[in-house]
Fold these 2 entries.
Entry 1:
Amino acid sequence: MKENIDENDTKVEFNGGGKEIESQEEAARLKSEFISLMSHELRTPLNSVIGFTELLLAKGSDRSPKDEEYLDIVLSSARHLKSLIDKVVDISKLELGQSEMASEEVEVCALIKASLNELSHLAEKNSIKLVFNNMGQEIWCLGDETRIKQVIVNFVSNAIKYNRPSGRVDVDVFEDEQILITVSDTGLGIPEGKQNLIFEPFKRLSSQSSHIEGTGLGLTISKMFVEAMGGQIGVESDLGRGSKFWFNLCRVESPQQSSTTSLLEANETKNKAVSAINSLVLYIEDNAVNRLVMTEFFDEISGVELLLADNAHDGIAMAKKNKPALILMDINLPGISGLKALQIIRGLDEIKDIPIVAVSAQAMKHDVDEALKLGMDDYLTKPVEFVKIQSTVAKFVFNNRTDYHL
Ligand code: ADP
């Protein structure tokens, strides 16, 4: 995967066809296409492995404890593989300079709150207290909201994973000419000689790598993201007492409310949940295994009925007839693609307001951005996990009603 394009050599052989590619740009484009295709091809079978293993585990039966343990190992290995694919794709894109980096005004306190919410389960599982010390403040910086959140999530999840039992994680934001975000933990700390190394790919501290799950790529990607946004990243650590990971970004004044809508707010307004009385969900997917996995998922969600279509043409007809509360749609469909179907549906008065969530193995940022820009309400990447489907249904079908438990 770490195949470097020699900067001094403009002729690059690619794809085994013996074809000489004259420009680095063309080589980079082909490499990017290859990565996109490869990650798609890997994700599709992974989807089945994760989906069916989750189902087997959820169903429970009179399996022996050993068999249960084997299934847990299959599931965590498949998830690990998925996380590796995601990260290798990210790194390759960054190395190729093809990772589009937005430069927008971002309110970091809301972003930190959202990240801590997402990680509250992991913290609870590890008996770690999460503390955010700038609650209620608004602090703005310049950067790419999605990437800043990825860095915060990486720092905080590490601070939870590599902490001691009943430890604590503090997140602080400081404002000066720049904004500085720090994540401090009460873990074992990192020896001084290793503090730079852990930002390199696949470098993990040996004391932790055997028993704590990780890929050794999170900090590499965080560093690339922060530096691409013009910031700096680093760590200070006190062996035996804890570590403080930090990054800084350019500070901006709070923009006029009317001129800027953050991604988070935009996503909120996109929530077009319809009446809770309608609990029909339509899934448009050509792959039979994926349909089966989804059917099994919906069997576990009470009060919701799943309709299936194996192509967009039939899917649109079913949407017109049944007016589902939510459409889940594969993108890579034969005939009418998922994105084309989205545009068709958005043009049909009677069904144009139905929320549509993409369910796709295409996980590149530009794929996701394009789909959201065209009007998808959300984008789930395969392999989709049961909890993601549950939260999507809770959000779009039940409008996050607190009195409804899936
Ligand atoms: P991962 O956590 O997936 O292994 P990272 O790139 O995020 O990958 O981290 C690389 C390594 O740095 C980790 O494996 C761990 O050894 C070390 N590390 C990261 N964060 C901390 C922390 N807060 N405390 C102690 N060690 C850490």
Entry 2:
Amino acid sequence: MIKTHTATAKWLPCLFTRCFLALASLFILISCADSDPEHAANAVSLVDAKATPQTRALYQNLHRLSPEHVLFGHQDALAYGVLWEGDEDRSDARDVTGSHPALYGWEIGNLELGAPENLDKVNFERMRRWIQAAYQRGGVTTISWHMNSPATGGNAWDTRPTVAEIIPGGSKHEQLKAYLDAFVVFNEQLALTDEQGEKHYIPLIFRPWHEHNGDWFWWGKGHASEADYIALWRFTVEYLRDDNKVHNLIYAFSPDRSRTDINHFKRDYLYGYPGDDYVDIIGLDNYWDLGHPANEAPAEQQKQDFARSLQAIVEIANEKGKIAALTEGGQDKLPNPRFWTDTVLPAINTNATTRQLAYMMVWRNANREREGRDHFYVPYEGHEGAEDFLHFSRHALVLFENELPDMYVAPSL
Ligand code: BMA
């Protein structure tokens, strides 16, 4: 290419031609940059144009890493495991693999009531320290919120209609604001102050109003109109970002797979979608294709559907210039000891599109003694699936915390 340009230039040495060639080269350079994910990463933009540099860097890095890697995440990872509770710097994932997960999920339900602990008895003060420590180690945090109803006072699963009353114009709107204020305060308390006295807000992937296409939460389908749900989402973003100047959030949308038809996935997925200006992460909660007890499809079919669901969210994310994530999922109690290398990995690794999943997070490992039951998603030490999970963690595609690059520094061009 360069040789041809030089040869041609010899025959056409006028200024006009040189200008034309320079512009043409620039054009080629720009088009190359666009198709190169390393460069495109810098082009992705957030819902919040005033997002902090660390928040932007996190999003760019998730995007940049996504063609080659998927970050592994676990809900409540540091708070307790199946056989332990409250130990310092421990996770079931690390017991088995040698590293904490790359991403930590925390739940803030009951924060809005002023309670000292969340609905699963995780103390908020300890949660704050775990989030700060994870950030300092380079890990990523995502927040979910099973909010109590600001209108009825019932919990997230109390499906008496609430949404119309709490959106702008509703009689209980002020109560919604008061509940959101609790998060604004918590977010302030999470911020770290450096030696110069400057405050650093910890970037958070914020995932409110999840699984809204299901009918199990008061914000879910059947208990709120689609328009009211969208109004709730948009108000939440505007209230935090514009009224309260919260600029460290990456907003994740996360419908549930069980209420989508895999053959019309995009149509069903976009139910309640608040718009590209209000969503950063095209997420999906998928327990359904991973052996959910109510799913009667044969195991092979479920595997295929799982891969198709991942492919679909990546395609939607790509169309929108966003990133895709499995925001929640997993197999409760892991009856399949080869779940990770037999089901999860092959699906993510299906093709170049599915591989673009940015992160996956599985749900919590309830403490057996305290909760008096088994409810876990990551193998613990001694579990028959532990070795398989270790293999999974060592796969080049999968990143745990000890393999992360600096997620909070913008990738260079
Ligand atoms: C559910 C279960 C419950 C828990 C809730 C909120 O999926 O794990 O035990 O209370 O999430 O974290």
